[in-house]
Amino acid sequence: MKTANLPHGHSALRVRSGFRIFLVLALAACSLPALAMNPPAAKPEAAPSATVTAAASVTLPAPASIATPDTAPLAAQLEALQQAKDAPGSSSVVKTVLQRAFALLGTPYRWGGSSPENGFDCSGLVGYVFRTIGIDLPRVSRSMANEGTRVDSREALTEGDLVFFGRRGHVDHVGIYIGNGQFLHAPRTGRDVTVSSLTSGYWSQKYLEARRLAAGS
Questions:
Q1: For a surface tag, which of 19, 129, 157, 174 has the fewest beta carbons within 10 Å of its beta carbon?
Q2: In the chain, which residue ranges form alpha helices assigned H by DSSP?
Q3: What are the pLDDT digits (tens) for 176-202?
């Protein structure tokens, strides 16, 4: 076998180039088993959005009943109030006042509010109820306390009377007496129109006086 004559140094260069090619092929062959055993990690799927996850996990709470913290459960209250409305001694005007007032239970308190759409403060609620039967009352509770005739004692209260509360003899709150030692009112910011006790608890201590309007007699 004849070997071609190459310029000086070319034989060594060819040997080195052949060795490099062999080394590359050998390394590639060795890496194939490793790749087979440890394939590249797959790109992770995008996590569901927080909105979708939250929506899927939310459990809607059961509807809550209207809370009246210092009185009997609402169902018992309404039953007693219905009996008061149907009592033989109640006039048709008083029954209408109570009916209109009960329909507003749960309306949010709002300072300066005087409608079901905008909410009520205490005098806004009372004024609204009596306007529905054609009686216009002053806008603020202390002025309402000058209307009608004074009721001598708590024991003499009847359905539809206005009951007033305050401190040091100054009126700052009003509600509608609904019988059975209870009254309906818009208490304060953060609370809804509700029924409270006039015989025990916070409001019994703040009670000042009551007034009876001519239409409620």
A1: 19
A2: 10-37, 50-57, 74-86, 92-102, 122-131, 141-144, 202-206
A3: 999 999 999 999 999 999 999 999 999
